[in-house]
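Exercise 7. Given the encoded structure of a 149-residue chain, write a plausible sequence.
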């Protein structure tokens, strides 16, 4: 039996919105053409927090300082370590190095599972696992994070 890939993902939030990546339309990747969280596969012997910092740096040239562990999520495709941190940089200053677009997504769009990309001028779905993670986190943040509002 093969082991599930290990993945670290970042919930980066600002003004009760979540930074998301519109994934490329490549059929060979998970959630092609859908909105997802930034992050990716861990390198061999890389710890989840270090992998998260590396992946986010590679994808948008942003240094996640002191990420907080939220939860792990498993499904048939991966074991995901989820971290969260406030986004302390305007998205206009992020460098998108992977994916088609990035945007701050409202909880309303997360709830309906659809967000408009101004770059490609289309509504696109959120990946199901990404939507579930953000809905869980929103519930957690409202009760546990004073700086989330």
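Solution.
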């Amino acid at each position: 039996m093969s082991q599930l890939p290990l993945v670290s993902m970042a919930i980066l939030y600002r003004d009760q919105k979540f930074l998301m990546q519109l994934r490329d339309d490549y059929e060979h990747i998970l959630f092609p053409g859908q909105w997802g969280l930034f992050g990716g596969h861990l390198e061999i012997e890389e710890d989840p927090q270090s992998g998260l910092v590396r992946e986010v740096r590679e994808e948008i040239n942003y240094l996640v300082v002191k990420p907080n562990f939220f939860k792990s999520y498993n499904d048939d495709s991966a074991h995901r370590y989820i971290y969260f941190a406030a986004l302390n940089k305007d998205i206009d200053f992020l460098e998108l190095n992977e994916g088609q677009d990035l945007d701050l997504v409202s909880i309303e769009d997360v709830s309906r599972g659809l967000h408009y990309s101004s770059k490609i001028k289309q509504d696109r779905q959120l990946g199901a696992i990404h939507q579930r993670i953000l809905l869980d986190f929103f519930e957690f943040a409202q009760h546990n994070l004073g700086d989330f509002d």
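Remark. The mean pLDDT is 93. Students should compare their own answers with the one above.
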